Amino acid sequence: FIVRPHFFQSLWKYSIPLYQVKHFSSEPDLEKGLEMRKWVLSGILASEETYLSHLEALLLPMKPLKAAATTSQPVLTSQQIETIFFKVPELYEIHKEFYDGLFPRVQQWSHQQRVGDLFQKLASQLGVYRAFVDNYEVAMETAEKCCQANAQFAEISEVMSWYLFLMFLRLFFFTALLYKPVDRVTRSTLVLHDLLKHTPVSHPDHPLLQDALRISQNFLSSINEEITPRRQSMTVKKGEHRQLLKDSFMVELVEGARKLRHVFLFTDLFLCAKLKKQIGGKSQQYDCKWYIPLTDLSFQMVDESEAVPNIPLVPDEELDAMKIKISQIKNDIQREKRANKGSKVIERLKKKLSEQESLLLLMSPNMAFRVHNRNGKSYTFLISSDYERAEWRENIREQQKKCDFSLTSVELQMLTNSCVKLQTVHNIPLTINKEDDESPGLYGFLNVIVHSATGFKQSSNLYCTLEVDSFGYFVNKAKTRVYRDTTEPNWNEEFEIELEGSQTLRILCYEKCYNKTKLTKEDGESTDRIMGKGQIQLDPQALQDKDWQRTVISMNGVEVKLSVKFTSREFSLKRMPSRKQTGVFGVKIAIVTKRERSKVPYIVRQCVEEIERRGMEEVGIYRVSGVATDIQALKAAFDVNNKDVSVMMSEMDVNAIAGTLKLYFRELPEPLFTDELYPNFAEGIALSDPVAKESCMLNLLLSLPEPNLVTFLFLLDHLKRVAERESVNKMSLHNLATVFGPTLLRPSEKDSKIPANPTQPITMTDSWSLEVMSQVQVLLYFLQLETIPTPDSKRQSILFSTEV
């Protein structure tokens, strides 16, 4: 009952309604429960009968083949016959005995009828199936060789193709079909659970069914452990193995539209499939969209003059709305779990969560990855990181050195069907479907020091970038300076990276190419060449220690030395009172003399002026982290009113200046929008009526203390000018709001207002996410307003405040 496919299909069909049946305890309900046992057993009988007829058909050619083996012209040798049909007769005898024993008992059914001994005996004979599995690969290779070398056996195969040999293929052709019975073993344990559920403890069958269940579960556990390394292997026509090397969900660009695909890299081909919708409880299935033999695959080369395909960009506001929905749904799931609500409610929420995560995965990536078939067809994927693009290229190029290819249309269909079993990536998307995970990622700040690198074979101009994952895709967060003409760069640069549910830190090492004509671009990528890449998992347990932790990342013979230190969000976002009489960075924004009330703080004006002088076209300005040591040096200079601060800034990387400005607002003991007014801003942005919202938000803004308002309006004008260069610096209004929103609005810890019902608590992670997104929306609202009608005195103070 373990190895035959049809038996479990029918058994499963009869078992499904049982999960919808309540466990009965009263006498009438007990009678109904016992009656259900008969229906299950009747289904088993019907499917066993079909299965036995299939085994008989499979064994039909074995007898004449054995007879011919003793003649002078054998079709197959006795050893080949034994190998190909190994344990099939034994399987037939086992199931025949089971069927002959079960049939009369069901025919003479009574509630006291015993069947447990039959299931117990059947389970005890699972060792025959183990032998069948162990022999499978040899049997399959032998059958393939016989078909190719023996014309008579090939003719037998053709004659049997529509009836007898079809069954042969079902058991022996492609490993994916072999593992279907193993799936049925898993389902059979559910059926035994049902039989036990409706079998009183006092019934003689109860201990026997328990024993059968135990044996089946132990067998399934052991067989899965043994065959897992073989699950990803398939036999191709020449007797070699087609193995799955890598698979992933990716976004394909089809006629200007984004399509979610599941991509599979095998040892000899690259296959793109679409996951079909499950209808009527059917199992998961794939539809092959296209494939390219690795022998025919190349990466499309892009000339400078050639236009990169138009990529449909999704507005940042829409992506942010998806993130808000994801956080809210996760919050709802946790609340329902704490309230012990029914599983149906939670399942509905999980379905919504999966839909939103899939949509975010579909809409977020914008980096082109193109593959080309030498027959003329090209395909474009969109991914989020240069790391993934390089990884796919490396894997494909490595395999192209040693692959051969042969694939018929029938084999393609069977290969596509097998992808359900072979896939290693099951969830959409991979990294953010974590509502049941005890560790959904880190929230806070990660300080990273990139020390040095060794292992380069020749002198180059080298730099590194750092990426972390957020909401399922990776974002570039930092970049070291270029270390010129060296094989052993010593950067020793520190960066502070904000984490939002992050689980992985990636580092990519590039060679800077100053002569753009020397390199040919692929996929419209940067001409800088990737020299190595690696990643480390951000383990919350390991990062609990507040001390620096040193690590070495190995990448293609290159080793990069790093130090990391994590500060959780609850500590990193805590505003602390300034210990200095001069205030933060030598400035007290909310405590100024009457003469100073018309001034924007010196540090704010100096940083803004320098950024507008040479940083407006810097890609990722305000988003990419500056070197932490430079930021601290600049902070110290402002703290002591160093007169040489302008000279320091002119010689410093512009990202460090941007980081200094952000740090100033973050270290204010009270936010620019004040603790008192913050809750009102959070409530005002949630208003649905646009007229009421504008009136509320503008009145609140004008209620700020004059120094705060003056400083904010000055900064607001600057950020709008930065966004005007979005086509170059890639910083939209929304990106800027994401960076500055929490910095300008985050309240002191004691005043943090999180709109949550005390009787329905939400997790720290979700509460922070929702509050941060609210802060982003507040700043974005003001950034998107064309004009802000302020009193003339306050606007004039901005226009004419130029004193130091």
Tell me about this structure.
The protein is of the alpha+beta class and 804 residues long. The chain folds into four domains: 6-232, Dbl homology (DH) domain (Dbl Homology Domain, Chain A, Up-down Bundle); 238-310 and 366-427, PH-domain like (Roll); 442-572, Sandwich (Immunoglobulin-like); 579-751 and 763-784, Phosphatidylinositol 3-kinase, Chain A (Orthogonal Bundle). It is built from 27 helices and 19 strands. Strands 1, 2, 3, 4, 5, 6, 8 and 9 form an eight-stranded antiparallel β-sheet that branches. Strands 11, 12, 13, 15 and 17 form a five-stranded antiparallel β-sheet that branches. A hairpin with a 5-residue loop joins strand 1 and strand 2. Helix 17 runs antiparallel to helix 20. The protein is elongated. The chain starts with a helix and ends in a 5-residue tail after the last helix.
Short description:
This protein is an alpha+beta fold. The chain is about 50% helix and about 20% strand. Helix 12 runs antiparallel to helix 26 (about 765-785) and helix 17 runs antiparallel to helix 20 (about 655-665).
